[in-house]
Amino acid sequence: MRNPYLPLPMKLVKNFTETSDKLIHTFTLEFLSQEDAENFKYAPGQFAEVMVYGKGEAPFGIASSPTEKGILKFSVAKVGVVSTALHMLEEGTIVGVRGPLGNSYPLEQLKGKSLTIIGGGFAFTTLRSTIQYILDPANRGDYGDLTVIYGARNPGLLLYKDELAAWDARPDINLITTIDREVEGWTGRVGFIPTVTKEVAPKSDYAIICGPPVMIKFTLPVLVECGFTPDRIIMSLENRMKCGIGMCGRCNVGSKYVCKDGPVFTKEQLDKLPNEY
Amino acid sequence: MIINKNEIAGILTKLAEEYRVIAPVKKDGLVQYAAIKNGEEACLDYANTKKPGKEILFPQSEELFNYTVSAEGVRMQDNVDKEATIVFGMRPCDVKSLVLLDNVFKNDQYTDVYYLTRRANTLIVGLGCNEPASTCFCTSMACGPFAKEGSDIFLTDLGETYFIEGISDKGKELLAKLGLSAASEEQKAAAAKLQTETKADGSINIEGLAEKLGGMFEHPFWDSLHEKCLGCAACTYLCPTCHCFDIADEAKDCEGCRVRNWDACMFPLFTLHGSGHNPRPGGKARWRQRLMHKFNYFVERYNATACVGCGRCIKNCPVNLDIRQALAEVRALD
Ligand SMILES: Cc1cc2nc3c(=O)[nH]c(=O)nc-3n(C[C@H](O)[C@H](O)[C@H](O)COP(=O)(O)OP(=O)(O)OC[C@H]3O[C@@H](n4cnc5c(N)ncnc54)[C@H](O)[C@@H]3O)c2cc1C
Ligand code: SF4
Ligand code: SF4
Ligand code: FES
After folding, report:
1. What GO MF annotations does this protein's record show (chain B) (predicted)?
2. A with B: how many residue pairs have Cβ under 8 Å apart?
3. Interface-testing mutation among B63, B74, B266, B286, with chain A (most A C-beta atoms within 10 A)
4. Which of A61, A212, B156, B216 has a CA that sits 20 to 30 A from residue B251's CA?
């Protein structure tokens, strides 16, 4: 019997301050053993429990793509015990990782389809994984047009600035970044995500959306207006979690456990569940 | 088979040489489960234990593993408990609750090694209830004072003697080793009569209840139900089928351990997000979750009701909220 509570040891190789307010850091972790690296098979959209020895563990979406071998990346907001402890870790420290946990974006099913990916705030992390995966030369041909709408309050809060620039330079992705209010030097769009989505009026086979509850609430009707049926809108939930394996009873929405049956659901699936997330 | 009550203590003492024997004992003014060495300690003359039988396989607080961190790396020590155990004299409702918990601690993807290893190494001797308490309603809940589901061996109290049945292969094997005498036809008949005629409150009808609750998430019924509730979670901690837990690390310098502790959906922090958003912000949402989980969500997931009618939540609620009444009210709604 494999014990799903035991974390794998990983080495923190990079602790990078991602945003201008310093509240979000991106951590790059390396597997200590080759065997663990090979066994840890994940897909974009999955998450893991990251453990700081002596402090505890917390769930974070995996920000790296399976195409980036041997490492895992997490972008973490400083909000409480574990996230603050993580922020203070020195490079070289050993941390524990349990996972991969949960389901993933249905990338097999999405093959051959055009996609609109919409992200708000730091919930963009697992979307980075998805985009990076699709843009990998080995996979790009499997997918159609790719539109990404990504918003943050101000330019300093955008994650993965280097990558955004690199993506923007590519012809095979239509990247739209937006910020809430006019700022000097900003050449992208200005406006909230629902508004921008309405202006862009994306036409794709599927939409994937991840962000804070308010943003989701106001963007969904826009997507419906744009013609996305509920089975073609894919979302990711973030209920509070502990076990991550469907046992501690914490993260349920109706009879579903977000940690195990999710975190990825279609709007069609969520419409059948109680509105408690 | 049959055994005189005055022989029980001797047998338990002997079994305790080979097994960890856990039985109800009188301690600190309560009847509670404890490991015993001397069979005299066992107290089989009890209505039900204060804390539910789940604590034997899923302790209230349990160290899962411990670790030492050094410059060389991390050394981990896993604490899976493999000791061969006999639980003696557990009431049928508590035994049934373990059958329900089995669904939770093993799913299609993950196995809780701590619970399941104990489960696999534990033999359960169930004990029927001749006099169910006024708060017992197991007869309503696909259980009953003489329900044998989950027991390896089952005892029926005939006054001076216990009528003993081997239920599972594991139970029959142990009984064969004990070399007990056979029951007379009279004793068999007396046991059969007790087993069929003893009933607890059976007035709550759960047929169709799950479906009905399924359409009631937004119903005004939930608005007032919770009003007296203090949110103390006594009902959930003492419920044999409630299984929610918290995971926390306890550490000092470079040594630490990970513990899991019972937790409960009746607490506001249970679902509080880091962002401050709480999907179940008030008592209404929490009482609804408790009832829905037991009588709708669990049914959808595992095809069984997560209540065995033990009555602990009724007996121990400081403001006398009665889950039977809540169910009756749901029933009565159009
Ligand atoms: C599937 C999933 C993916 C996620 N992905 C990411 C991600 O990629 N990046 C990211 O940054 N976050 C992510 N999160 C959120 C992240 O899990 C939480 O922010 C994280 O658990 C915080 O852990 P912590 O130990 O730092 O906070 P905790 O110390 O647990 O505190 C979190 C918050 O809970 C409250 N709280 C906790 N305990 C108490 C208490 N005793 N009293 C009062 N209030 C309390 C406080 O509001 C506190 O700010 C994800 C969550 C899920 C479920
Ligand atoms: S025991 Fe009673 S008061 Fe306490 S949480 Fe349960 S219902 Fe509420
Ligand atoms: S809900 Fe109440 S009566 Fe039912 S099993 Fe739990 S404690 Fe016992
Ligand atoms: S986190 Fe434990 S059940 Fe989902």
Report:
1. iron-sulfur cluster binding; metal ion binding
2. 125
3. B74
4. A61
A205 to chain B, minimum CA–CA distance in Å?
A: 31
Distance B215 CA to ligand 4 centre (A): 24
What is the per-residue pLDDT for B102?
97
Residue A1, pLDDT > 80, answer: no
Average pLDDT in the A57-82 region? 95
Domain A8-101 has CATH 3.40.109.10: no
Q: Which backbone phi and psi does A11 adopt, to 5 degrees? A: -100, 130
Report the b/e string of A45-65 with b at 16+ CB within 10 A.
Answer: bbbbbbbbbbbbbbbbbbbbb
**DSSP secondary structure of B221-287:** HHHHHTTT-----HHHHT-SS---EEEEEEEETTEEEEEEEE--TTSGGGG--TTS--SS-SHHHHH
Which pLDDT does position A272 carry in this prediction?
94
Distance from C-alpha of A92 to C-alpha of A13, rounded to nearest angstrom = 6
ipTM for the predicted complex: 0.91
Task: Check the annotation: does A210 bind a ligand.
Answer: no
Cβ contact A136:A67 at 8 Å: yes
Per-domain residue ranges of chain B: 2-197, 209-332
Q: Mean pLDDT across chain B, nearest whole number? A: 94
pLDDT digits (tens, 9 = 90+) for B4-34: 999 999 999 999 999 999 999 999 889 999 9
Average pLDDT on B135-146 reads: 94
* A107-236: in CATH 3.40.50.80: yes
| Per-residue pLDDT, B69 | 86
- CA–centroid distance, B208 to ligand 1, in Å, is 39
**What ranges do the domains of chain A cover?**
8-101, 107-236
Residues of A in contact with B272 (CB under 8 A): 240
A60 lines ligand 1 (CB under 6 A): yes
Cβ A261 vs Cβ A244: under 8 Å: no
